[in-house]
Structure formats: structure tokens, C-alpha cells
Amino acid sequence: LAPWVPVVGLEIHAQISSNSKLFSGSQVQFAAPPNSLVSFFDASLPGTLPVLNRRCVEAAVMTGLALNCSINKKSLFDRKHYFYADLPAGYQITQQRVPIAVNGSLSYSLCIDNKMSQMVTKTVRIKQIQLEQDSGKSLHDDTRSQTLVDLNRAGVGLMEVVMEPDMCCGEEAAAAVRELQLILQTLGSSQAVMAEGQLRVDANVSVHHPGEPYGVRTEVKNINSIRFLAKAVDYEIQRQIEELENGGTILNETRAFDSKLGCTVPMRDKEGKQDYRFMPEPNLPPLILYDAKSLPANMNHQQVINIDWIHERLPDLPSVKREKLVEQYGILPEHSFTLLNEDGLAEFFESVVKHTQMKPKKVIGWVLNDLLSYLKQHSLTVKESPVSSFLLADLLNLLEKKEISSTAAKQVLAELWKGEGKTPLEIVKEQKLELLQDQKELEQICQAVIDGQENE
Amino acid sequence: AALKDGLRSQVSAALKEGRVTPTELCQRCLALIKSTKFLNAYITVAEETALKQAEESEERYKRGQPLGILDGIPISVKDNFNTAGIETTCASNMLKGYISPYNATVVQKLLDQGAVLLGKTNLDEFAMGSGSTDGVFGPVRNPWSYSKQYKEKSVLKSHSEDEESDWVITGGSSGGSAAAVSSFTCFAALGSDTGGSTRNPAAHCGVVGLKPTYGLISRHGLIPLVNSMDVPGILTRCVDDAAVLLGSLAGHDPKDSTTVQDDFKPFELPNLTDVSKLSIGIPKEYHAPGLSSEILALWSKAADLFKNAGAKVIEVSLPHTRYSIVCYHVLCTAEVASNMARFDGLEYGHRSDMKDSTESMYAATRREGFNDVVRGRILSGNYFLLKQNYEKYFVKAQKVRRLIANDFVKVFRSGVDILLTPTTLSDAAPYTEFIQEDNRTRSAQDDILTQAANMAGLPAINVPTALSERGLPVGLQFIGRSFQEKQLLSVAKWFEKQVQFPVIQLEEVKRHDNGVFQHQKSASFS
User: Where does the Asn/Gln amidotransferase domain lie (chain A) (predicted)?
Assistant: First the structure.
């Protein structure tokens, strides 16, 4: 049997973190009462016009720079037409001809064979990033044969990030998306929480034999978490392989991931291929961005965006942060990977290190093994940890000063989880876990034990 | 003060001096609207709110604190501009009963300066047409149909015909606004101009019709036909008044990203006496097929007028003029198809009772809400925007548009200041004759002389010039350089003074205008 090469590309929509929408002044807010955040423009009232939100452009530029893209100093807006209840104007304003950023890359890490100790770095090319409007939401009420439309989300700014088909499996796709999520959260350009719809991923999957052209691809939608992304992609790859090996063909179709069944199913037929009748958006002039070189002297800086200025102010990206952690604390790369992978864990670790004499190389074990596993077991986030970094630091100090053994320390920690407000020292005293340092006292105890044994 | 007085020179002064009050003016206009109802110029008359605005204005005058020249001045607005609390229909079933929650920027500006909004004027449905005959509220009648001047000339033929059917069209699509100004029911009106929709009816109704430079006046709140060509248009009875309106409306609007950022300085029109430094261009392509010999002669006479006054008058060429109609057709229908996509009955406007599915509801709503003209343009536009057709039609048309615009650039760069052309091919046609051809044919014919200015975004103005043999108005058009409205209007004003276009003699106006008649000298041009 000839081997199969799976090919996976991703289209990711990240909701921009901004106060107001991409082209109108209405607020951006999750879970507000239906139709309470809708401006005249969002509702497509006739005669209203789009006005570009500066913050959204900055978010896209930041993201483009963080993904090593070329920022297009001139980009254009287009209308993409289709009729749907959640699209009031009958078209979406997007960037089809010339998007704001192109030709970037994203590096991400994977563990080989699930061993944390063997990490490998992979890269996926970023085709482009474009600014576009989010649609509203429609809820189908089949019992009453009606569709309920909520336009709160209509017009919210999105960055569509297109990743080239450089990935080969669910794990890679998941890792790439995870890294993108961390980057977006670090930049603040998107909160990127999948559960709140701030990050939506569609996967394009195909398979082919080595040396042959790419196979027909399917698009997989309705993926609601990174875990499901990996599952959906792997399922679809398998499905396609089986289909082809049984002599079948792959249709160029859109499929939905059913998380309950763990499989992909064809989506309702959208009546053949859509022709979106793209047309330039006539109400928005081309978006012109500047850098230090091209910025005219007399320009009002409120009116322009300077790419270099934004570049200078980018925060440390996750990959840089990881390196710094390794360098600064002498921990292993896989350690720093895990630290950044949990929201707040890196800060927790650094706080513990700051408040303890124990070496970071030893602290990391306590943080990653003891603390993190407990949190995971109880589905808690770092923020929700009953053991604060100060408490853990206190405990580790006791251990470091050899006032308790490491076994005793684990016992104290177990007690600390109860969150009863006791300090480590208090618990040590309560449970009489102090290490005896006095030589004579130790000799006496040993002697007593030996004597005890002889009596038997 | 009389209804026919110019704003700046007479009415404003009269208001300030208390010789007439805003309430009186308003009441006179409202009464005249009622007695000229047969013109069908108005879709909605906002009597209550207008009187209230007039009262408030009166208070300000009493306190000696009027907001400006426009305070207390009755104005009408084409029914494709959003007016908060007052129905905005675009003469379409789709928006019958639609009460907008916001004012168009230009409407707000007028109200902020104390203008009195009398009502919304009639138009072709969604501004698609050149006759103001294709709206759901019926056609607009040209006031000149009932003028002494026209009746005198048609005495010979009308004895066998029903006088009722003899009336002539206003032109379009801002026919209601043009008729309103022409019949003295308001001092100025807002229209819109996409391919000539302000200048065309201005010419047929004997009023001044100004199309400003694209990007000078905000389109926020103007229900769009072609976003890349639409401008709010200004209709007045004299060029000075157009300058006043322009000054109160122009300027950057943050709500409209296509308005220019530069500061606009309202100007007072100089009284040009010396035109010897001017260079007037006569584009030979505007000698279009179908141009009546009458208008051709007038155009020629106008050119001579400038020449005799010392101006340099030269023939120029705008070689791509002949492509402008077909180019406009592609770009206009494409934008229409896009702009009309929002009318689905879901958020506002007409919604069909069809409930089988969302899509069937959409389809039925749009079939019921739009007339044939609108639907025809939507279908054409969608065809041109199909992926397989986009390059061939839309992109090609954009390129041709660039060529048309460049024609003007070249001519203006060669030293020509202003272009002088006819506005229409002939005087106003009788309604019964006009409707013999369909909207598309008529638009293609009638837009030929006005359309290119929209393609190029240039300012242009119709100045009423003379009466035709049938006793109907004929106007001539001046086209200027981008953002050089001051020069354009100065030349137009000079020309206006030379030709002394006659005042319309309307029975109804005589009855309502008790003031002293400002009998303008009828040293008419022809």
C-alpha cells in the first residue's frame, strides 16, 4: 500500500479586541442582551456609511508583525455578497484583493511521541491576514419555524489568518493554533478564547500519494476547541484515506465536525457554489499605512498609523519569553513551554522564584509536577489556585533550609490545598513534621529503635 | 418680500428687518404647495414640524439672534435623504412608511442653521430615471406646463387635445425638487446627482442645478444609487442662492470617509464684470446625436457671448465621451445590485407575507418592493459582477472611467478654465411622449451630456438660459475643475446676469404672493 501524505491548511478568524466595531461605533461585548449593541450602520439602515476603526487596524498590524508578515502599506476593502439572515447589508466588507498583511510565518513546538523531553520546532507559512466584518448570529427555532436574528456581533472586527497547507496532522494543527492563540493574547489584539467565539478555526484537509498532485480538499467547520480541532483533522484524514482506498472519491465540500460522534458530516447543501460577486467597497478609500521613512513631515499623527512605531512597541512574543525563561532560570525548553502554555503559570513561577532561596531549577519541578497536576486534577486555572505563589515560596524555603524533608513538604502541600488559610509553618508545627537537626537527639531515637528491636 | 426673491439679497434682509416673518413665509409656501398639488412634487409635506421650526426661527429673529442666512428659510428635500421622524420612501414600495431614526448630514446642517423643512420631494424610484415618472407615487409635472409662457405657445394644437394630457415632464430624477423650486413652494431644495439627476430637471424646470465636486458634500444619510458617483445636489432660483447653500453644506464629515479632509471656506460670490481672462472650452463631442437645433443655436450664442466679452473660447475634445453611457451602465448597475442587497424585509421596510423560508421571503419582498427599473438594474449589475464577467465588464468599465476622467484633466491642464455645454438634448417632452420609451432607453439618451461629470467627479451647474419655441426652459451647463466651485459659480453668475432668464408666470403663484413683485427684466436670451 502506497503511503498517504495528509495536507492540512487552516483559516482562522480571530475577533479583534476593541471597544467598538470595525466600521461603526457600537460596542463590542460578549453575551449582551440580543440586539442591544447595534448601530444604524450595523443594521444596514439605508444611507449609513462605514468608518474605519483605527484600533482594529493597529491590531492587525501588530499581529502581522508578530507573524513576520510584510505589512501592505496600501490595502483595499471589498464587498463579498451573499444573502443570509445574519448579514443585514447582503454583503460583508472584507479584504479580498489586497489584504493588510502577507507572507508571514509561525513557528510552533511539538513533542515527539508525547515525550516532553523531545520537542521539535515546526513552521507554517502565513499566507495573509485580512480585516473583515463578523456576521450576526442566527438561531434556528425549528419548532416554531422561525429564525431568530441577533445582530450584536454583526460588524465586529475580525482578523482572518490564513495558514498554508504546511501541516500534516491534527497535532500540528492544534499546536499551531495554540501558538497563534498565545501570540494574540500576548499582543492583546484578540482575547482568542475559542469558547466565546473569539477564535474560530476552519480546517482544509486533503490527502495524496507522495510525488502526486494534491488531492481534492474538504473544508471542516464547527470546531469548538483546540482538542476538537486535532480530532476533527485526524478523523477527516482517516476518512479520506479509507474512502480513496475503497475506490471512492473525495468531494470538494464543506463538512461539519460533530463533537459528540467524533466525526465529520457533510453540511447542508448550500445550493451549489456561491459566486460572491466581489466588488471594491466604494465608501472606503484605500487604507494607507506609513513607516518612519514614508511618513510625511506635516502629517497629523492622529490620522496615520506608523508601522515602525508599532513594531518598536511590540511586547515579547511567547517564543522570546520562553527563551528568556530558559536563559534566566536555567530551566529546560520543555519546562518553559509548559509554563507559557498555562495562563498565568509563568508569572506564578517567577513569583515563587522571587520569594524563595530555592534554585529555579528545583522550583520548576514543584510548579510543574505538584502544583500543575493538582490544578489539572481539579480543573482549576492558575488564578483559581488555593495555593498562592507566596505560600508555595514559604514552603519551599522551609525545605531549602532543611527544616523539613521533601516528603514532609509534599504532606504540607496536600494540606495547603484545602485552602484553610494556614501557613506552611503552622502546618509543619501542627503535624510535627520538623526535621530534627540535633545529632544527640537523633542518636537517642535511633538507639531507642534498636533497643526496641532487640527486645523482640 | 416676494416668494421669488433671492435669499442673500432680499429674503434674508427682509427677515432680519421684520418685513416678513418666518411663519408667514412658511405659511405661504405651505399654501402654495396645497394649491399646486397637481404637480405631485411632494411626497410628504411636514406641515406641523415646519410651522414649529418657523416659530422657533421667529423667536430667534425677535431676539436679534438668527443663526444665519438660512434661518427661517423654507427648504425641501428629495425623498432619498434620511429625515428623522419624517417618512423617507425613495418613491418605492420598499420604503413606504419608513421613518428613519436619523438625519442625513446635509439635512442636519440645514436644520442646525434654522432652515424650515417643508417636506420630501418626489423622484424616480430610488433615483433611477431621467423623468421623475417612475416612482410609486406617480410622475411629477413640470410647473412650466401650466405657465402662461407654455400655454401661449401651445394654443394652436391643444384645442383637440385634453389639456390634462398636455403636461410636460420635469426631467429627473430630482424632478420633485426642481418643480418645488420652480413653482416657488420653497427657496431651495436638495436633490441628488449621479448621472445628471439634479442638472437635468433643473434645465427642464428653469432653475439653477448645482452638482458639487465629489467628496465636497457629505453623503451620509443619502440613500445611495452609485456610491462612487452620487453627490447631494442643490436646486435654487439663482446662482447666488446656490452659493449660499453650498457654503452651508460643504466640508469634511467624519461619518463619510469619501469627503475630503481639507477645510472648506464658504465664499461670497464676486460680481464678475471682466471675463477676458477666462478660457472657455467647447467640447465638440457634446454636439451629441439628437441635440435639438434650438439648443445647438443657444449653445453657440452663449459661446459668442463669452467671446464678445473678451474671453478666450476654444473648441476642445473629450474623446472618450461616447463611451461614458455604456461605462456608466456597467458601473451603475453593479453598484445598484450591491446597494440594494440590504433590502430584504428583515430589519426595516416592506416585508412580504411569504413565510415558507427565509429565501422565499427575501425573493417575494424584493419582487413586491422594487419596480421593474430597479429589478432590471439589479439583475444587470449581478451579471456584470459574476466572477466570469468581472474582468470583462466591471474592471474594463473602471479603466474606461479613468480614461474619461483623464480627458477632463488634459483639457483643464491645457489652460481651459470652464467647459460650456448643453445640459439636455431638447426641452421637456410631454409625458405621453416620454413614456413611449422605457426607462433604460430614456436614461441612456438623456444622461449623455451630464453623465461624464459624475464619472470624473467634477463640479457642474445648469444655468437656465432661455425659453424654447414651445415656451419651455432650456439650460446650459458649465463644468469646472475639481473643488473650484468658486470659479464655476462666478462664471455661472456672470452668465445668468447676461441672459436674464424670464420668471415663470404661474397663476397659483400670483395668487399667493402678495408681496411686491420683483419684476426681473425679461431681456431674455433668445
Answer: 347-456
